[in-house]
């Protein structure tokens, strides 16, 4: 039988129509819920089948969380790979097993000898290209098992250091034993590990006490909406706040 030559049978399928909710939604994440909790809440509240995020935040972290709605989930790699800006607070004198305030205290040391100049010196040393070893309390998988699950069992496994870049690491104020800072960094940077490394270098231990993401790529926290407000919107209001994916073409 001869091959069909009629062009009607060889045309590509027409593109699927883009809907108003195909895009991204900027959320000002509160402390407490996980990024997955927020994804699930928005999916359930508005009946959207596909919802994801463009880079997780730890439960106690706040700030910019990018939700990907509908076909917007195809943009995942773009936002996961973007540079980030954070504001944070380091607490000197206490080291924890998770390197942040949620973890168990593993040591307490005298911090009183640490000066502002000492802190600035260590922040400068961590600027530029550095290698970071993922913390045991993290979602990084080793042999297919997330590290945090191994940590719960008291296990400590070898982790391969990763190259990250710290564009800037600036001190906002120094009120020992706490200090506030801003950091701009590449994807995959653990800010809590920066704090833990500073504490180790200063000989007093330290952990990340607070963290807030203020930017991801060109997207800013000033354009985000509070989660409680979002969950009280109707679908039309949601549509008005969605940045349609065609803007990222």
What features would you highlight for this structure?
globular; two-stranded antiparallel sheet; Pseudouridine synthase; alpha+beta; about 250 residues; 2 domains
Can you tell me about this structure?
It contains seven helices and 15 strands. The protein has 249 residues and is of the alpha+beta class. The chain has two domains: 23-81 and 218-248, Pseudouridine synthase; 84-216, Pseudouridine synthase (2-Layer Sandwich), CATH 3.30.2350.10. The strands form three sheets. Strands 1, 2, 3, 4, 7, 10, 11, 12, 13, 14 and 15 form an eleven-stranded mixed beta sheet that branches. The chain starts with 22 loop residues before the first strand and ends in a 5-residue tail after the last strand. The mean pLDDT is 89.
């Amino acid at each position: 039988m001869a091959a069909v030559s009629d062009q009607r049978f060889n045309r590509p399928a027409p593109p699927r129509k883009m809907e108003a909710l195909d895009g991204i939604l900027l959320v000002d994440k509160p402390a407490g819920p996980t990024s997955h909790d927020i994804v699930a809440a928005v999916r359930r509240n508005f009946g959207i089948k596909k919802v994801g995020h463009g880079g997780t935040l730890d439960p106690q972290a706040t700030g910019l969380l990018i939700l990907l709605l509908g076909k917007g989930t195809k943009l995942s790699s773009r936002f996961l790979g973007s540079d980030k800006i954070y504001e944070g607070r380091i607490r000197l004198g206490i080291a924890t097993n998770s390197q942040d305030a949620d973890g168990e205290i593993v040591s307490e040391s005298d911090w009183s000898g640490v000066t502002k100049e000492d802190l600035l010196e260590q922040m400068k040393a961590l600027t530029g290209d550095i290698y970071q070893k993922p913390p045991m309390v993290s979602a990084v998988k080793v042999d297919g098992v997330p590290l945090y699950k191994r940590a719960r069992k008291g296990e400590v496994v070898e982790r391969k250091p990763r190259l990250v870049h710290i564009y800037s690491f600036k001190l906002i104020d120094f009120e020992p034993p706490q200090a506030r800072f801003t950091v701009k960094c590449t994807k995959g940077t653990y800010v809590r590990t920066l704090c833990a490394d500073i504490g180790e270098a200063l000989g007093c231990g330290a952990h990340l006490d607070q963290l807030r993401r203020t930017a991801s790529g060109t997207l800013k926290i000033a354009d985000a909406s509070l989660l409680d407000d979002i969950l009280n919107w109707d679908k039309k209001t949601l549509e008005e706040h969605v940045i349609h994916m065609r803007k990222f073409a």
